[in-house]
Amino acid sequence: xxxxxxxxxxxxxxxxxxxxxxxxxxxxxxxxxxxxxxxxxxxxxxxxxxxxxxxxxxxxxxxxxxxxxxxxxxxxxxxxxxxxxxxxxxxxxxxxxxxxxxxxxxxxxxxxxxxxxxxxxxxxxxxxxxxxxxxxxxxxxxxxxxxxxxxxxxxxxxxxxxxxxxxxxxxxxxxxxxxxxxxxxxxx
Length: 188
Description:
Blueprint: H1 2-12, H2 18-35, H3 37-46, H4 49-59, H5 68-74, H6 80-93, H7 99-103, H8 111-122, H9 130-133, H10 142-155, H11 160-167, H12 173-185
Helix pairs in contact: 1-2, 3-4, 4-6, 5-6, 6-8, 8-10, 10-12, 11-12
């Protein structure tokens, strides 16, 4: 079935119209990614660390709801780098069904994973996330605080301005700088 689609699209690569050729090429890329899903999942479940990381990133290019359970499973992996990579992909995909799983990693034991979780949540543009992000502005980890500031701007919560104004008073230069930049980017 997928092979039939690819063969039909291959014929369109010869179309006289540039936009049709471009659309056909893009569609073929998506279909070929779906066709490789089984191979990617095999590597994800049995490969070495480097191969597994590449498999996680490859899932970002695959448009299929079947990838989400696999990415969510990686969130419980003992390797923080793999958890972080899965959070990055889930954030870019913005599937609302994964929001709770991403949010749980705001309390991950690894600081970098927490930053990835905040960054991912910033992609969801859900104003309800503000209640989970604003407490992070008091965290001792500068990277986490700066990510939380950027996420607050990204989600576009109208109440975010109050917290950003407060962050301008933070003792840390990097936090004040990020808050100042964020206030310039905040669209109300």
